Amino acid sequence: MNIKLKGNINSSVLVIGCFHGDEPQGKYLIEKYLALNPDTKLMFIPCLNKYGFEHNVRTNSNGVDLNRNFPTENWVLSQKDNFFGGNEPASEEETRFVIDTIEKHKPKLILTLHAPYKVVNYDGPAKNISEKLSEITGYPVEESIGYPTPGSFGTWAGTERKIPTVTLELDEECDVKELEDPVFEVFKLLENY
After folding, report:
1. Which of 5, 47, 83, 165 could make a disulfide contact with 157, Cβ separation 3.0–4.6 Å?
2. C-alpha to C-alpha distance for 161 and 68, rounded to whole angstroms
3. Fold assignment, 6-110+124-173
4. pTM for the full model?
5. What is the spatial order of strands in the sheet that 141-142 belongs to?
């Protein structure tokens, strides 16, 4: 596994890109932001799912959807498809890396970058910051993504641990360069969180 923390590892804000390998926008945007802002106050995991990114698939090398692999109260053993949550909760090294990072660094806010729904989804006490991100992106705020997500990161971090957790679902139909201005403005806002 080759997952690295970048930026300011003492930050109170953690930003995670590429939970799903076929949603590469987060990795691109984080790496570009870091190149332009080497002294950022934010802590980043640019690409959580390196295998998925390299193979343009949702799951990791074990066929597990990392966003269904967290040890939540609602985790279930599911069928082996693109939403397979693993044979047991936190079975994947990527999941354990995120859990260890959060336990060690104790962020006060977490932002994950996904695609394609064009919404600001949140878990836990994150409604106010979600509304600010909505003003920047023009995406509506949605407390529910609209379908069950057993074992999700948002449930684990936001709902169960009460860490404000925002999932920014980006537009996948536009050129990723068109997302730079609004997402960088989001990052700049979070620099002062």
Report:
1. 165
2. 16
3. Aminopeptidase (3.40.630)
4. 0.97
5. 6-7, 43-45, 13-17, 109-114, 165-169, 119-123, 141-142
